[in-house]
Specification:
Elements: H1 9-23, H2 33-41, H3 53-60, E1 75-77, H4 92-103, H5 108-113, H6 121-127, H7 129-134, E2 144-146, H8 152-166
Helix pairs in contact: 1-8, 2-3
Length: 169
């Protein structure tokens, strides 16, 4: 599946059935990258679906870790962004300064060293293919599920199903 914004009932049920079938093989549903890093670093978890910052952080700590972006099942992408809220505290110029600094060419190297990408494709390209590959940001050659915003109804449906699966139902 490459678009989860408009799935049929049959597709939704197939996905939840698959999740139920693997539930007993899972140690936990991790909450944040720090938790997952600790579980993997301790050896309690050997394989996980993770954000690319987790293997980068573990490798930096000397753990023998790998990252496979082009799996037979496909891969997934999610995007993080920034919101400038109306009437929020702070100085608007500083918000723009912050975003501009993140998008600057000079920011790509420290971001990737922390396991993060950049929306500045020119900056990323300047780091070279080898660096991108080593940090889990190489070329994608498999189908991609872009985890983009979905309707509130679909989000609620997914959340309810996931909570039931986590509870063993």
């Amino acid at each position: 599946m490459t678009d989860w914004s408009d799935v049929s009932n049959a597709e939704f049920e197939a996905a939840t059935d698959w999740l139920r079938s693997i539930h007993e093989n899972l140690r936990t549903y991790w909450v944040d990258p720090g938790e997952l890093g600790q579980l993997m670093g301790s050896g309690e978890v050997l394989v996980a679906w993770a954000w690319n910052e987790v293997p980068v952080a573990l490798a930096d700590e000397g753990f023998p870790v790998g990252f496979e972006r082009n799996t037979a099942e496909g891969t997934s992408v999610w995007l993080c962004g920034y919101v400038n809220m109306t009437d929020a505290p702070g100085v608007e110029e500083k918000a723009y300064d912050y975003v501009n600094a993140l998008l600057a060419v000079d920011s790509a190297q420290p971001l990737i060293e922390g396991g993060f990408g950049s929306a500045n494709t020119v900056a990323l390209a300047s780091l070279g293919t080898e660096t991108l590959e080593a940090n889990g940001l190489g070329a994608v050659t498999v189908p991609v599920l872009a985890q983009l915003p979905i309707s509130n109804e679909q989000r609620q449906r997914q959340a309810e199903a996931f909570e039931r699966i986590k509870a063993g139902f």
